[in-house]
């Protein structure tokens, strides 16, 4: 296991749609261990595989003392009538926080290292995490979801980094 370096905005791996995991081998097991160890730090809520340079569909989370992972996640349900509009940040866009609208509730399905089905769901912060990390796996950053004025501020701040 290793704490891995976080890829920062501008790295092409963050804009790459991640590949599905088709075989659970030693490389995938090492990836999961690295995701779990890297997310286990104060201030870290979630971490997608491409944020540590691996273009595979996997993410880990660290929400309210619960640390976990999911392979090949796909969002199967979000609340369509309740939204949250709190500030969101990202390890790959360090130091920047902007109001980002997300569904209040989200549910994702995937598998674990044994190939068994996994369901990850929650409201508020967990819902935000699920949506944020699945966006990463689709090559998106939270700044892509900002309204025009905040996106302009974010891009100006990123250029100044």
Automatic annotation (TrEMBL):
<feature type="binding site">
    <location>
        <position position="132"/>
    </location>
    <ligand>
        <name>Fe cation</name>
    </ligand>
</feature>
<feature type="binding site">
    <location>
        <position position="90"/>
    </location>
    <ligand>
        <name>Fe cation</name>
    </ligand>
</feature>
<protein>
    <recommendedName>
        <fullName>Peptide deformylase</fullName>
        <ecNumber>3.5.1.88</ecNumber>
    </recommendedName>
</protein>
<keyword id="KW-0648">Protein biosynthesis</keyword>
<comment type="similarity">
    <text>Belongs to the polypeptide deformylase family.</text>
</comment>
<keyword id="KW-0408">Iron</keyword>
<dbReference type="GO" id="GO:0042586">
    <property type="term" value="F:peptide deformylase activity"/>
</dbReference>
<comment type="function">
    <text>Removes the formyl group from the N-terminal Met of newly synthesized proteins. Requires at least a dipeptide for an efficient rate of reaction. N-terminal L-methionine is a prerequisite for activity but the enzyme has broad specificity at other positions.</text>
</comment>
<keyword id="KW-0479">Metal-binding</keyword>
<dbReference type="GO" id="GO:0046872">
    <property type="term" value="F:metal ion binding"/>
</dbReference>
<feature type="binding site">
    <location>
        <position position="136"/>
    </location>
    <ligand>
        <name>Fe cation</name>
    </ligand>
</feature>
<dbReference type="InterPro" id="IPR036821">
    <property type="entry name" value="Peptide_deformylase_sf"/>
</dbReference>
<dbReference type="GO" id="GO:0006412">
    <property type="term" value="P:translation"/>
</dbReference>
<dbReference type="InterPro" id="IPR023635">
    <property type="entry name" value="Peptide_deformylase"/>
</dbReference>
<keyword id="KW-0378">Hydrolase</keyword>
<dbReference type="Pfam" id="PF01327">
    <property type="entry name" value="Pep_deformylase"/>
</dbReference>
<feature type="active site">
    <location>
        <position position="133"/>
    </location>
</feature>
């Amino acid at each position: 296991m290793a704490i891995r370096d976080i890829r920062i905005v501008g790295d092409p791996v963050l804009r790459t749609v991640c590949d599905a995991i088709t075989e659970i081998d030693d490389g995938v097991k090492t990836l999961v261990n690295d995701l779990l160890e890297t997310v286990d730090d104060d201030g870290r809520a979630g971490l997608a595989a491409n944020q540590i340079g691996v273009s595979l569909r996997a993410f880990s989370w660290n929400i309210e003392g619960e640390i976990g992972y999911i392979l090949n996640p796909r969002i199967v349900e979000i609340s369509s009538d309740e939204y949250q509009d709190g500030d969101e940040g990202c390890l790959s866009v360090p130091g920047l926080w902007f109001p980002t609208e997300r569904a209040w509730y989200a549910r994702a399905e995937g598998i674990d290292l044994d190939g068994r089905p996994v369901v990850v769901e929650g409201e508020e912060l967990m819902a935000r995490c699920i949506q944020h990390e699945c966006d990463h796996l689709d090559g998106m950053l939270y700044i892509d979801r900002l309204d025009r004025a905040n996106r302009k501020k974010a891009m100006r701040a990123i250029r100044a980094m």
